[in-house]
Amino acid sequence: MVDDRTGWAIAGTGNIARRFAEDLRHSKKGHVVAVASADTERGRRFAAAIGPQVAHGDLDNILARADVQAVYVAGRNELHCEHAMRSIAAGKPVLVEKPFATSAAEAERITDAARGAGILAMEAMWMRFIPAIRALRTRVEKGEIGAIRRVEAGISFINPKPLAPVIADLGVYPLSLAVNLLGTPESVSASATADGRQVAITLRYENALAILNCGFDAEGGNSATVVGTKGVLSTDAPLFAPSALTLRPTKAIHAPMTEGNLAPHPRLPWRDAARSLVRPLRVAVRPLLYRGNGLHYEADHFTDCLRAGLRESPLMPLTESVEVMRIVERVESLVSHRS
Known about the structure:
- By secondary structure, this protein is α/β, with parallel strands linked by helices.
- The chain has 10 helices and 14 strands.
- The chain has helices at 15-23, 40-50, 59-63, 80-89, 104-117, 131-141, 166-182, 269-278, 296-307, 318-338, and strands at residues 6-11, 30-36, 55-57, 70-73, 94-97, 121-124, 148-156, 187-192, 198-204, 209-215, 224-228, 231-235, 244-249, 284-287.
- The strands form 2 sheets. Strands 8-9-10-7-11-12-13-14 form an 8-stranded mixed sheet. The chain has a 6-stranded parallel sheet with strand order 3-2-1-4-5-6, sandwiched between helices.
- Strand 8 (187-192) and strand 9 (198-204) form a beta hairpin.
């Protein structure tokens, strides 16, 4: 029987590469055929852990393989641009782990190279493809909460030895969500603690604000809330892979409460009690469970784009990856200037 699944090569052998390989076991559209690593023994062990049929070698040898139909770039952040560019030059569609690059200039290089070569390239922002986040986006597009007035999102964990600045490692999640929902902000403001381990960001739009935070110093709520003129949508934790979405419709107050328009009425304690019982019934909680870590959703979407002949994802366009990197640079500049 012909195997029509996408043959993936994983460039990198770290934690996120391992989770990607594990999650592809839940996919019917793709499987790992090769592992690229500069460390021969490490690559051999990683490939063997996936399966005896998985090849391993350096990146150039792996890119030359005919069975490699897509490359997942999962190495260190500073290698993302180089590995993506080499994959594109070899004619291989490329899925680049977040952050897409280490600068806006690098993100633009990848974008220009992919578009110039007619090669599909996409940032592996797995949050965008998790069922709860896709449902959130769909409900917003349908107008279920009206016009967005505020996006509140944050992600923070205790990490005494981070491998990258908090804005690049964690901040890209709430930033990516805000840019996806609201677009390019009119202005950016930010502040950070003296040690730089906690950062607060505000994106200002014409009629909305995105109030975001990230940190390595403590574990936070790690969720998102989107406030609209007709309702509120909220995710559970963690922000990058929530498993439930809550919708709470809201009503506008049509007249201000002043002494003149507050009509006297007899005190009815049961009325307040009844309202407190009915109010929770207006909240709709929708569980959206999934298997594994949820990384297979981005891989399957990538395969769908390949099969459709697309050169860019409609869910994770390259322009938004570049914009997020521009905001990251702006935040880093603001934070360093004030420290």
